Amino acid sequence: MTEAAARRAPGTPCWVSLMVHGMAATQEFYGALFGWEFRPGPQQLGPYVRALLDGREVAGIGQLPPDRRLPIAWTPYLASDDVDATAETVRHCGGTVGVGPLDAGEAGRMAIGSDPAGAVFGIWQAGEHAGSAVTGVPGAMVWNELVTRETASVAKFYQAVFGYTEEALVSADFDFLTLHLAGRPVASVHGAGHALPRDQGPHWMTYFKVEDVDEAVERVADLGGHVVSPAREGSHGRVATVADPEGAEFSVVASLAT
């Protein structure tokens, strides 16, 4: 188990949030899947709840306006000491800022941007809310991976904005690297090339830890979600990619360590 630090180093994935059309049904799905309970969070962008695991905050779920037909996707938030300065750097380095920067009450200050390839991510400057209170336990976020066409150019963007160093996997047929802060791996980038889904494009994938991947996959289907990529043995343990009833994709993994 990893207890969250009071304030994360800039660039550290510190929170994950999902905007949906049916909040009640979405809460029911994730509550049954991960054992989450919910309480109200900041309402600056509309109705929003924070998911709790054993009383500790692990994720957020918000309500999309009825007229907004945006992709339904989990969005990781990367820590910043100055969200306004980070947002300006995002623009300077070829990315875009679609929301904010704006205050989320006393919780902190946020923005939502996208990298030059189009993958969406959040930026979070902590106030009273530092982010996920716990990671790396069943039902909580354990990892985030950027799935994009190729790693080289987009990694330069994230290095320039957040100061990551990278460690590439040397392979002739696998384009993959890990992003590090202070010598510690915090996220990864997978260059999927032509295997990148045309209808999805570059995107961040959130991994949630579970005790049993196969059981979790069955439960997803029973709860109205579907399997995107069946359970398989990966480099970090057994893993599967699934989607909730509104189509938000995420991965479940059994043994990935933080």
How are the strands of the largest sheet arranged?
A: 3-4-5-2-6-9-8-7
> Treating each run of at least 4 consecutive H or I residues as one helix, how many helices?
4
Regions with pLDDT < 50 over 5+ consecutive residues?
A: none
Silhouette: globular
Labels describing this entry:
globular; alpha+beta; single chain; 44% strand
Secondary structure elements and pairings:
Layout: E1 2-3, E2 13-20, H1 23-34, E3 37-40, E4 48-53, E5 56-63, E6 74-79, H2 83-92, E7 96-103, E8 108-114, E9 120-126, E10 134-135, E11 141-148, H3 151-162, E12 165-168, E13 175-181, E14 184-191, E15 203-209, H4 213-222, E16 226-234, E17 237-243, E18 249-253
Parallel strand pairs: 2-5, 6-9, 11-14, 15-18
Antiparallel strand pairs: 1-10, 2-6, 3-4, 4-5, 7-8, 8-9, 11-15, 12-13, 13-14, 16-17, 17-18
What does this structure look like?
By secondary structure, this protein is of the alpha+beta class. The protein is built from four helices and 18 strands. The strands form three sheets. An eight-stranded mixed sheet has the order 3-4-5-2-6-9-8-7, covered by helices on one side. Strand 12 and strand 13 form a beta hairpin. 42% of the residues are buried.
Short summary of the structure?
This protein is α+β, with helices and mostly antiparallel strands and 258 residues long. The chain has helices at residues 23-34, 83-92, 151-162, 213-222, and strands at residues 2-3, 13-20, 37-40, 48-53, 56-63, 74-79, 96-103, 108-114, 120-126, 134-135, 141-148, 165-168, 175-181, 184-191, 203-209, 226-234, 237-243, 249-253.
